[in-house]
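Good morning C.,

I know you're traveling, so I'll keep this short. The sequence:
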Amino acid sequence: MDRQTQRALIPTPVGTIQIHATGHKLLRVELIGHILPPTEPESEGSPLLERIVHAIRAYLDGQQEDFQWVPLETAFLPPLHQKFYLWLREHVPYGTTRTYGDVAAALGLHPRSVGRILAQNPFPIVVPCHRIVAKTGLGGYSSGLKWKRFLLEVEGSFPEDLRRT
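The tokens, ready to paste straight into the viewer:
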């Protein structure tokens, strides 16, 4: 791990959120399927990482957070993915869901392309890929459906017709 890269872990009921950032940008968020002990940011001097950790903890406690303020390191992403993730942050707010078809129509893509791009999202939660659902169900989620269900429940936006499943 690069000296300028810092990491923090946040435990949740379904696993651990691992956040990687520099002093200036978020590098990635990983949703791990098992629970690791919590950590504070690994090194002092990163107000950005501390602020992201605080915001994600508040989000998990049910506080509305849009994460629009978080600067993302997107230089390694294809231009289409950059545009796509920006669109998600701006058009799919906290507590709402959209279907793969809705997003595809808005961006001029095929719904399967939407799913492929979502599956590669390096910034889950901050770029709200969990809010995109299938017309007839949850759809997929790269970190597992338990994470998708959990995040939608945190936001109070789990589709009512799926609560029985």
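Safe travels,
E.
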